[in-house]
Amino acid sequence: MNKQIDLNEYSNFVDQLTSLPSKDLTTMINRLDRIDGNYEAYGANGEMQQGPDINVPMFVTSAMGMCSEAGEFMEIAKKCLWQGKNLSDDVLYHLKRELGDQIFYWTMACRALRLDPNEVIEENVRKLESRYPGGKFDVHYSENRQAGDL
Fold first, then answer.
1. Tell me, what's the pLDDT at 38?
2. Of the candidates 143, 96, 134, the residue with the CA atom closest to the CA atom of residue 104
3. Which uninterrupted H or E stretch holds 61?
4. Is 18 part of any domain?
């Protein structure tokens, strides 16, 4: 039999494992400022380096938006797969709109990070071609990744 967990003890456990920027507004603002490139740091070679030039508010908005829209897409899929909802033309239209929302936030992320969307797709193709020799899905390669394959 499993030990019953006291929710107050678990709440304290969660608090101990939560980073300071997640709990303290000033620390979070300082972290966002640091991510925004308003700092200097030492690189691996010991030289002073400026942080990356990204649009932090747009970065945060795009991350939240992509996750939210993926959840909305999954909600529709869940209803079709497990609740008997028919995959009608109306449902396909709804899925299409949610995919469009995902592309909107994905494009926003590319802009926030100053990435060329075409280069992002090209890198994805290179990654997947490297992961799946021969260009076909294989469970072995899916489960056994090469070093550095994120």
1. 63
2. 96
3. helix 56-82
4. yes
How many alpha carbons lie under 13 Å from residue 48 in its C-beta half-sphere? 2
Q: Select from 72, 120, 67 the least CA-distant residue to 96.
A: 72
Note whether 89 and 72 are within 8 A (CB).
no
Q: Does this model's pTM top 0.90?
A: no
Range of the structural domain that residue 3 is part of: 1-52
| Assigned domain for 115 exists | no
Other Cβ atoms closer than 10 A to 105: 21
User: Is the pLDDT higher at 81 or at 145?
Assistant: 81
Count of structural domains within the chain: 1
Distance (Å, rounded) from C-alpha 90 to C-alpha 150? 36
Q: How many helices (H) and strands (E) does the chain have?
A: 7, 2
